[in-house]
Structure formats: C-alpha cells, structure tokens
Amino acid sequence: MAERHPLFMPLVLVGGLIFGFGLGFSHMARPDVVLDFLQFEDFGLVFVMFGGSALVGVTYFLAPRLLGRALLTGDTFDRRLKSFDRNVLIGGGIFGVGWGLSGICPGAAYASLGVGNVTILWAIAGMFAGAYLQGYWRS
C-alpha cells in the first residue's frame, strides 16, 4: 500500500459526517420509515437509494478513466470480486432478516443515535454480539 495522504483521515471523517447527515435528513435513520419501506407502504427510500447508487456508479465508471490512481492513497483502481458462495448467501440472508426485524442497517444505526433514538443501542449491541460470535465461530 502506498503512503497515505495527510488529509486521508480528516476526509474520511468528513465523508462519514456527510453520510450520517444524509441518512438522518432522508429519514433512513428512523426504523419506522425503513419498516414502512420494507413492507411496501412508503417508497421514498427508493429515491434515496437510487440517488446514492447513481452517484457511486458514475464515480466507479469515471474515476479510473480520469484519475488513474486514487488521489489520497495512490492505490490503483481494481475490482475486488468476491465469489458468490454459500457463506455469502447465508450471511446475506441473516443480515436481511436482522434488517427486517429491527428496521435498521448498521450504517443507519449510528445515524439513528444522532437523531435521538437511544433505544437503537439494543440493535447496535446485537450487531456487535453477532459480529463477535461469527468471528469466534470462524476462528
């Protein structure tokens, strides 16, 4: 790995702040809104996800062609393919069930704390416990 630019960590922080603000502003950090979306009652989050996906898609298409290397790390743009295997399928299913039961995904859980949803700490504790148990089981 190449030497990191001195602004790497501050820009990661700024990016996280913008992401968290966007989650809060779009109400994606509110479990009731997410559950309404998952139950096909409110389609507002489709526009939030489409906007983010479109921006990332354009960036992934243009950045390697225009820049050649990542600005802050100097790394080359490479695709990292993960094989579609049983672990991906089972892990995705477990993640989906947890998302459907709690109405929150990991990124939005932290943003949910920022909008005053203290009860989300139960879901965050569950995420940490699940990740710990999976790591323990795999090792």
Structure commentary:
- There is one protein chain.
- This protein is mainly α and 139 residues long.
- The protein has one domain.
- 67% of the residues lie in helices and 0% in strands.
- The protein has six helices and no strands.
- The protein has helices spanning 8-25, 31-38, 44-66, 86-102, 106-114, 121-138.
- The longest helix has 23 residues, at 44-66.
- It is globular and about 40 Å long.
- The two termini are 26 Å apart.
- The mean pLDDT is 85.
Topology:
Layout: H1 8-25, H2 31-38, H3 44-66, H4 86-102, H5 106-114, H6 121-138
Helix pairs in contact: 1-5, 5-6
State the gist of this model.
By secondary structure, the protein is mostly helical. Helix content is 67%, strand content 0%. The longest helix is centred in the middle third of the chain and has 23 residues, at 44-66.
Name some characteristics of this structure.
mainly alpha
Described by strand count, sense and barrel closure, the largest sheet is:
none
Terminal residue distance: 26 Å
Number of domains: 1
Q: Give the SSE order as H and E letters.
A: HHHHHH
**Computed structural class:** mainly alpha
* Residue runs with pLDDT of under 50 for 5 or more positions: none
Radius of gyration: 18 Å
